[in-house]
């Protein structure tokens, strides 16, 4: 007797690795769009859940950005039900947040997924991001020029979220869908060149593969994994430094400049960034230039004044302390 097609075996194995530690009866929520990546994920999750005694649930997010999107979402939901999903929800969202259409859609999507996960008490949420998505994320982060944190790509696991396919190529998920006779919806937005990620996918990656040879996507994904390990180690070091450097203060928080100067800049900037976020600086507005200006108060002190930051937060230096509090205007 022959086994499943290699593409089918690969996606099933990846999902099993992501769910192996769950106890029988656990709810696994799959975020599905109807595309090849998410449908391969959905089918593999049902297959694995039956064998591990898990309860597969699914949520289909309708961004309402295209005519007929509700019908597309419902078709995906119907197919998920036929696959054996115990519970399928279609969640319509309004995309109107800040940061451009791509960021706004992403924020709305994750908010809907988080809400559904809370409602069904999911222990794990599965996303269908592939190795190709990871490679694109690394290139986009590299273009932003914000250091290792911006080019480490997506993590395999973040909170409830798992991304089993980060070592699976997009072509494999499509082949798996063909082998399992799954209906796949191709999002027209994936061909709209106005979106930066689409240009990276359709223009930049093919050029890199052509000029540098095959394996570019795998190399970029491998770079992300290496940087994730490095970044985790630096963050752990930064947490230790911050605990030692924290000083009592009546307002905001303060850090001992002497202790901050004893560690490499890579660690010091992570300490500063964590402090700024804690005090209310919006993460989406915090730029490398802001961090450099605050770091200069520690490492290049020449009597400069308060650094004004997004969220009406200010950073200043006095008496050997880096003080972070509501800005004085």
The overall pLDDT average reads 92
- From the alpha carbons, calculate the radius of gyration and give it in angstroms: 23 Å
Number of helices: 12
Order of helices and strands: HEHEHEHEHHEEHHHEEHHHEEE
The CATH superfamily of the largest domain is identified as HUPs
Query: Stretches where pLDDT falls below 50 for ≥5 residues?
Result: none
Q: CATH topology of the largest domain, what is it called?
A: Rossmann fold
Top CATH class of the largest domain: Alpha Beta
The CATH architecture of the largest domain can be named as 3-Layer(aba) Sandwich
**Helix vs. strand class:** alpha/beta
N- to C-terminal separation?
A: 76 Å
- How many domains? The number is 2
- Biggest sheet statistics: 6 strands, mixed
Strands in their spatial order, largest beta sheet: 3-2-1-4-6-5
- Give helix % range: 40-55%
DSSP strand (E) fraction?
Answer: 5-15%
What is the global morphology?
A: elongated
- Count of beta strands: 11
């Amino acid at each position: 007797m022959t086994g499943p097609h290699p593409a089918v075996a690969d996606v099933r194995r990846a999902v099993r690795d992501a769910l192996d530690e769950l106890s029988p009866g656990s709810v696994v929520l799959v975020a599905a769009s109807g595309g090849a990546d998410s449908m391969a994920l959905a089918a593999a999750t049902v297959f694995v859940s039956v064998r591990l005694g898990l309860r597969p649930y699914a949520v289909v997010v309708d961004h309402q950005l295209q005519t007929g999107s509700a019908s597309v979402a419902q078709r995906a939901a119907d197919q998920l039900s036929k696959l054996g999903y115990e519970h399928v929800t279609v969640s319509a969202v309004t995309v109107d947040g800040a940061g451009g259409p791509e960021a706004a859609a992403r924020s709305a999507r994750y908010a809907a997924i988080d809400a559904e996960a809370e409602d069904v008490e999911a222990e794990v949420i599965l996303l269908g991001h592939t190795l190709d998505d990871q490679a694109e994320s690394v290139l986009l982060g590299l273009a932003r020029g914000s250091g290792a944190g911006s080019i480490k790509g997506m993590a395999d696991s973040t909170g409830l979220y798992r991304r089993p396919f980060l070592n699976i190529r997009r072509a494999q998920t499509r082949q798996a869908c063909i082998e399992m006779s799954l209906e796949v919806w191709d999002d027209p937005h994936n061909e709209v060149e106005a979106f930066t990620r689409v240009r990276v996918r359709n223009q930049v990656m093919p050029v890199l593969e052509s000029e540098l040879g095959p394996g570019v996507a795998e190399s970029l994904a491998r770079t992300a994994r290496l940087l994730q390990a490095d970044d985790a180690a630096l963050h752990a070091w930064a947490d230790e430094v911050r605990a030692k450097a924290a000083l009592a203060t009546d307002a905001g928080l303060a850090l001992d400049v002497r202790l901050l100067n004893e560690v490499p800049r890579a660690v010091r900037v992570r300490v500063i960034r964590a402090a700024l976020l804690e005090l209310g600086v919006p993460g989406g507005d915090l730029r490398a230039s802001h961090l450099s200006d605050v770091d200069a108060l520690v490492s290049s002190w020449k009597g400069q004044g308060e650094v004004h930051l997004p969220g009406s937060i200010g950073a200043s230096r006095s008496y050997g302390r880096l003080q972070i509090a509501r800005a004085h205007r």
